[in-house]
Specification:
The protein is an alpha/beta fold. It has 14 helices and 14 strands.
Length: about 325
């Protein structure tokens, strides 16, 4: 597979000191093969006790990004003889209650997102106090260590936004619309702020109701109709990119649609030129590594990252690389 342009070097140059959790072009296939082999044998690839790991995320219903995270986590759990429990809620207080429920069950490890860290702080502290190892994933890298987590697995959202700003510069864009589909999500705010930091043009934030795609389409379309100078729309999740494309068509706009994250539909849209570029943070790797790192900690007291985030992105993916990802997106691991 051709090498993807990556902004991990920016993280190193920024003195984050983060360890990079790399992914080869066959990494997902090897994990899937290992899972299948374990299934054929009737067991896991290890003989450690049957530990239980709970993952609690801020996902809303129907978000395909989290399907990929779960798939990675489940395959790591199958390999590691782990019972994997998944739950989610896009409201911070309800997500915290799910963490409390996992603590009450006496799980052996917790993977949690910190999209709304203030709401999650006490629940994570309760887990840590109970002696349950916690790994944060996807969002909350800035709070992870302070909250007592072993490490954070994901991308630095500010750096990812900066990568988008630089890419927009390279494409000669002058005015970008950054579409935030979940108010209160600190990671989303960091992404748009990162875009504004490096983009030489103008960035306008547009807040939409992410649970209502028809409303998202109307809001983006209305903005494009009202301001013909907008020549780039940046969505913060792959499912919203397709909606933004429809909004562009409704508005008769020529703005380029770009997106954070990747799924099969976004990969196809990149390949046919409907989308300009996507920022992949490798959600499969986030789920897989989080569960595997908890197993390593339970088995061997290992930690990874040295107190810094374990980065899974960002990678800028364009039309040139989209076709090479088709097999992976079709099976739901990219």
């Amino acid at each position: 597979m051709a090498r993807f342009r990556t902004w991990v070097s920016i993280a190193v140059a920024g003195a984050l000191g983060a360890s990079l959790a790399g992914c080869s072009s066959t990494g997902g296939k090897r994990a899937e093969d290992a899972r299948k082999a374990a299934s054929v044998r009737g067991g896991a690839a290890v003989d450690t006790p049957r530990w239980t790991v709970a993952m609690i995320t801020h996902s809303g219903d129907g978000d395909t990004f989290w399907d990929i995270v779960q798939r990675g986590a489940q395959q790591a759990a199958d390999k590691d003889n782990i019972k994997f429990l998944y739950s989610h809620d896009d409201e911070g207080q309800q997500q915290a209650q799910l963490v409390d429920a996992a603590v009450d069950k006496g799980v052996d490890g917790i993977v949690v997102t910190l999209a709304k860290p203030d709401a999650m702080k006490s629940a994570v502290a309760r887990a840590v106090k109970a002696g349950i190892p916690v790994i944060t994933v996807n969002s909350g890298s800035a709070q992870s260590e302070a909250f007592g987590a072993l490490t954070h697995v994901g991308q630095d959202e500010t750096i990812a936004g900066e990568a988008v700003g630089e890419e927009l510069n390279d494409r000669g864009r002058k005015k970008a619309l950054c579409v935030l589909h979940e108010q209160g999500n600190v990671g989303h705010e960091q992404r748009c702020a990162g875009v504004a930091k490096t983009f030489d043009g103008t960035v306008q934030n547009l807040y939409v109701e992410g649970t209502d795609m028809s409303a998202v389409q109307s809001s983006v379309g209305a903005k494009l109709q009202a301001d013909r100078s907008v020549d780039a729309v940046v969505t913060l999740g792959a499912p919203y990119a397709d909606t933004a494309v429809k909004a562009r068509e409704d508005a008769g706009s020529k703005a380029e649609i770009d997106t954070f994250d990747l799924n099969a539909k976004a990969a196809a849209a990149l390949a046919d030129g409907t989308l300009g570029f996507a920022v992949d943070q490798q959600p499969y790797l986030q789920g897989y590594e989080a569960v595997d790192l908890l197993w390593l900690h339970k088995y061997n007291a290992d930690t990874l990252g040295g107190g810094r985030p374990v980065l899974t992105g960002p990678q800028i993916i364009t039309k040139d690389q989209a076709a090479e990802l088709k097999d992976y997106t079709d099976r739901g691991t990219r």
